[in-house]
Amino acid sequence: MTVIMGIVNVTPDSFSDGGRFVDPDVAIAHGLRLRAEGADILDVGGESTRPGAERVAARVEQERVLPVVAALAAAGAPVSIDTLNASTAALALEAGASIVNDVSGGLADPGMLEVVASTRADVVLGHWRGASADMYARAEYTDLVREVIEELLVRVEAAALAGIPPARIVLDPGVGFAKRGAQNWDVLRALPQFAGLGPRVLVGTSRKRFLGDALGDDPSLADKDLATAVTSVIAAQNGAWAVRVHDVAATRDALRVAALWEGTWTP
Q1: Annotated active-site residue in 129, 155, 208, 252
Q2: Does 267 map to a domain?
Q3: Which secondary-structure segment (H or E) carries 211?
Q4: What is the domain-level CATH number for residue 212?
Q5: Domain range for residue 203?
Q6: How far is 260 from 137, CA to CA, in rounded Å?
Q7: Does 179 participate in catalysis according to the annotation?
Q8: Over the stretch 194-229, which tens digit does the pLDDT of each residue have?
Q9: Domain for residue 41, yes or no?
Q10: Is residue 229 part of a domain?
Q11: Does 55 map to a domain?
């Protein structure tokens, strides 16, 4: 069954749950709850990448995430560190993380790929065209799917040159990153093409703006979580290895129902 990556935002300003889990003990408890609900991986992040977000100092990010990563890993949970900073990635891997989730694909920090290559960690390479503060200014494409694929393959080549084999690479087509409204649907419809590139594919639609736009005026988080579960099922049916979500339980149930329907899972 498709892997579920549960989101643990240790930030004051993430777009849907910023501030709820800034306290390390609260974040740890939240991560353990997501694990109990069915998360296969816990993705811990200390810097918001929402549209318009400003960068934070690596030291601040590390103060937020390292206690959480260490505690969750010590509890036996597979942990991913969601970071743009090579120094944070290195410390998180030392603390027990086994995956680096870099939405910039190694572009934000030129040392990132070398850090990952020096370990046994997997790396998620996201499609990215620049910092969150002005990402929408870069949402201009002549052939969106072709360009996203080409830009991701450049990152795969960079990872290979750094010494990271394809088996340790996961690609994220970057839903919401330098992509406006309908462009995100174009990316999702092209998931079989991304899955055909070779590396595993991670899809993150959870609570993102384009889902809210599709649902109408001022949808609730519950509405967005339902839409996330639907898109996660469709992503799984179109080749996604993993989906990254806030509401693990809803996505778990949706994936199980779909798998039962398809005859690919037995309770």
Answers
A1: 208
A2: no
A3: helix 209-215
A4: 3.20.20.20
A5: 3-262
A6: 43
A7: no
A8: 999 999 999 999 999 999 999 988 899 899 999 999
A9: yes
A10: yes
A11: yes
Specify whether 208 is catalytic. Answer: yes
Distance, in Å, from the CA atom of 267 to the CA atom of 265, rounded to the nearest integer, reads 7
86-95 and 58-74 helices cross at what angle (nearest 10)? 20
- Which amino acid type is present at position 43? D
Structure-token pair, residue 29: 């408890």
Residue carrying the six token digits 């795969």: 156
Using CA atoms, how far residue 132 sits from 76, 185, 212, in Å, is 32, 20, 19
Q: Of 64, 168, 244, 252, which residue is the catalytic one?
A: 244
Q: Number of helices (H) and strands (E) in the chain: give both, helices first.
A: 10, 8
- Domain total for the chain? 1
Q: What is the share, in percent, of the chain residues with pLDDT greater than 70?
A: 95
Is residue 17 predicted with pLDDT exceeding 60? no
- State the Cα–Cα distance between residues 80 and 202, nearest whole angstrom: 13
Contact of 98 with 79, CB cutoff 8 Å: yes
Residue pair 109/83 in contact (Cβ under 8 Å)? The answer is no
| Per-residue pLDDT tens digits for 122-145 | 999 999 998 766 777 889 999 999
